[in-house]
Every structure is written in C-alpha cells, then in structure tokens.
Amino acid sequence: MHSRKPFYILVFLLFVAGLASSIYRGIEHRVPFLPGQQVETWAIDAKVSFAGQGEAGEVSLALPQDPAYEVLMEHTTSPGYGLSIIDDELGRRAIWSKRQVSGQQDLYYKVTLVPTGQTRLVDDDEPAAPEAPVWAATEKAAAEEIIDQAWAQSGSNLSYARQLVRLVGGDKSQNLALLLTANRPAKLFINLLAAKGVPAREVSALRLEDQRRRQQLVSFVEVYDKGEWHLFDASNGKEGRPENLLLWERQGKSVLDVIGGSNSQVNFSMLMETRPALSTSIDMMEVGQGLDFSLYQLPLEEQSLFKGILLIPIGVLMVVFLRVIIGIKTSGTFMPVLIALAFIQTTLVTGLVGFLLIVSCGLMIRSYLSHLNLLLISRISAVIIVVIGIIGIFTLLSYKFGLSEGLTITFFPMIILAWTIERMSILWEEEGAKEVVLQGGGSLLVATLAYLAMSATWVQHWVFNFLGIHLVILALVMLMGQYTGYRLLELKRFKPLAGE
C-alpha cells in the first residue's frame, strides 16, 4: 500500500503557495481583497515663481520622496524650458533650464500621491557623527547649561532628543530665550543634538489639507537612532508624524535653487481625491513595472475572455463538492459548469427557462429520430442541427414579442446541449423518466449553485486579481478526490437503523 504522505505534502504546498502569493499580491501591490474599495489620493501642485534677469536660468526643485506616499503620476508645465529629473544620493530633483530668462516666470510641478501606510523612516546606513557646534561667547554658557540638564535626564540618544525638544518647544527659559534670538527652533535643536554627537537633520514638510492654496513648507527635524529616523517638531516640542504630513525634502538641502533669477518662491496647492482602489493599484503597478506577469497587460478583449475562463475552476470546485461529498447526480460530469457560464450571460431565470424549453423540445424531436435507426454520429449531428434550429426559433420569437432577455439564449453551448439531449434520451429508454428527472434536476441544481458562486462579485474579483487562489482550488479538488466515505445523500439509506 502506497503512503499518502507525499500526496498530503503536495496538497499542503499547493495550498500554502496559493494563499501566500495572494496575500503577497494584496500587501505588496496593494490590490484590494474586496471589490469596490476606495482609496484617498492627494493631487499637489507646486508653483515656482521668480523674476528672470535676462540671462541663462536654471531652477532646481526638490521632489517628494516620502515612504508614507507613493507617486502615482507626475508631470510638469514649463513652456520653453528644458527639463531633467535626477535621482541620486541627494534625493530626487527637477531641474529646469533655459538659455535666456526675462521677466516673471512661473513653473509648475504636479504630482498625485497615494498613501502607503508606511510611516516609519527606516535607514540602515548610519550617518556620520556631526561636528560639535561653535557657540558665540554670549550663548555658550546658556547652551551648555541646557545640554547638561537634558543629558542628565536621558538614558539614550533618543531620550536626550525628547528632553531637548520638550525644552526648546515648551515654556521658554531665559537661556532658551537667549539662544532663540539668534537661532530658529529647528536649527537650535539640531545644534544642541550635535553637541553630544547625535545625528539629526532639518527636513521640509507639507501639511496636507483638502482644497488649500498658497501653502508653504514647514520645518521638522529628523533624529537618527538605531536604524530609524524619528520626527520632531521643534516649534511646539512634539514628537512623531502628524496626520497627513508629507515630507517633501529629507536630505537637509534647500528645496528651491534658482540661478539667473531673483525673488524666487514656491507655493503649494492640494486637493484630496477618492479613486477606486483596484484601478489605483493597477496604475501604480504600471508605473513601477509591476504588470510584467499580470493579466492586466493583456488587451481588453483578452482580459474579458480570461475573466470568464478563470471562473471555471470555481464551477469545477462546486461540481466536485456536490457530487463527491453531497452525492448529487448530474447528466454529464462538467456539463453544469458550462450551463452555469451560460447563466452568467443570460441571468438565472432566463437561463433556466431557456434550458428547459430547449431540452424539452430536443427530447421530443430526439424520440422521433430514434425510430429512424440512424448511426450514432448521424443522430448526434442531427440533434446538433435541431438544437441550433430551436435556439434560432426561440430567439426570433423573443424578438417578435419584445422579450429582450430571450435573445441571450444564444450563449448556451450548443454541442453540450446536444449531448445532454442524447444522454437523457438514452437514459429515458434504459432507466425510465424518473432517472431522467433525477439527473436532469440534479444538473440544474448544481448549475444553479455553481452560477451563484461564479456570479458573486467578490469571487470574480479574487479569481482574476489573485491568481494564486487557483492553486488553493487545485489543492481542495485533489483533497476531495481522496474522499472514499459515504455521500451525505446516501445516509438516508441508514435512517431505519437509527430508529432501532
């Protein structure tokens, strides 16, 4: 007797692989697990203005690179300017250039951002230790007193930063008031950290508020500790990232540099939008070259075809369960799956009525053909032609009476219907009408249940967007294929024994 252990290992691997790949796709590519979900996006316009001085001009603008937001789409409006977008160790920057710039100039950078939920600022590359600041003679004693106080009340670099930011952004003492006369809160906070060798840098951030215009960047401070940057607001003494905060420039460099111009400034306008989560995920995968092995890279016609094909495993799973576990008899093994596919096109009620009419008429004509003693191949061919004729007649009658639903019966698989009529006719002759009704009714019941499963919106969403789910279905089908116990409908035979 062969061991079943390899079989169960295979089933387990298929199940785990299918489930893991589906979860990975949902998390990594942010494909929604349920259809109809919405996601919020931010559309931001950055307007750069400056006065040209009649000479060659070059404008460099820092571009957002925040792990909490991913770029969905971006473009610029800069007539007459050359544009380059560079991405190096100093971050992403847009550089406009023009041979001669005169008068007022307006350049636009537009970006649509999608929140990723990744708010941690992880960095494995530890920055170099900062140089100790040089204090003015009037500030040295005050700075050293504040440093000593915060250092004595801390146990690590991060707690030292928390003590400092509470002092700098809280109630101002005489020492802090003196230091703040010559230093901005963010710059003072960084210098106090540098005095103890704690890496920190000033970053520029944008507070996102719906339908706001002419907004300016605000300063925050990032403090490095144990592989992660921690965000502090030195102006109010708070730690952490406020809600809807976009870090625009994180390298401690200037946001805007203009050569050949004066009175330069950058203003921001923003608008919150709601988009379908699935289409947003597809757009993001397209931008990130994530569609290389996705069905969404196919033409729309092929995508529509696959949406129908990928429903077949769901119907197959229903047939296997209902026949192997429940014990329902059907006419043909997988005929109910094809009928269920037709029901998706015709709707359930129209499909049931059309199926019963076609099969009933086909059985009557088939009973006449049986008296002609035709060969099997000729008889089947004749039944196929008859089925086509029946469908054509019903379609014309539906059109004449204005019943548009009847036009959809052309979606029924004609060859399958012909074989179904042939099998039922033979079954009628050999087993009687009762067995025909039993198997025919079982086929319609299985087809109906398969249709209900295949037409569910969330099922259609899963089988097309999470292809790994088909490995799970394969594992379940194989597992049920090993079932050799009693079918549930067979248990009624033992009901009299239960009463004894």
- Cα radius of gyration in angstroms: 36 Å
- Overall 3D form: elongated
β-strand amount: 15-25%
Structure class: alpha+beta
The biggest sheet amounts to: 7 strands, antiparallel
Distance between the termini: 38 Å
Order of H and E elements:
HEEEEEHHHHEEEEEEEEHHHHHHHHHHH
Low-confidence runs of at least 5 consecutive residues: none
Percent range of helical residues: 40-55%
Q: How many individual β-strands?
A: 13
Report mean pLDDT, rounded to a whole number: 84
Number of helices: 16
Descriptive notes:
With 500 residues, this protein is α+β, with helices and mostly antiparallel strands. Helices cover 46% and strands 24% of the residues. The chain contains 16 helices and 13 strands. The strands form 2 sheets. Strands 1, 2, 3, 4, 7, 12 and 13 form a 7-stranded antiparallel beta sheet that branches. Helix 1 packs antiparallel against helix 15. The longest helix has 25 residues. The two termini are 38 Å apart.
Question: Any descriptors?
Answer:
500 residues; six-stranded antiparallel beta sheet
Give me the secondary-structure topology.
Blueprint: H1 5-28, E1 38-62, E2 69-77, E3 82-88, E4 91-115, E5 121-122, H2 137-152, H3 157-169, H4 174-180, H5 185-194, E6 200-207, E7 212-215, E8 218-225, E9 228-233, E10 238-239, E11 245-249, E12 256-259, E13 261-276, H6 277-287, H7 300-309, H8 312-326, H9 335-346, H10 348-369, H11 376-400, H12 414-431, H13 433-454, H14 457-465, H15 469-480, H16 495-498
Antiparallel strand pairs: 1-4, 1-12, 1-13, 2-4, 3-4, 5-9, 6-8, 6-11, 7-13, 8-9, 9-10
Helix pairs in contact: 1-15, 2-3, 2-4, 3-5, 8-9, 8-13, 8-15, 9-10, 9-13, 10-11, 10-12, 11-12, 12-13
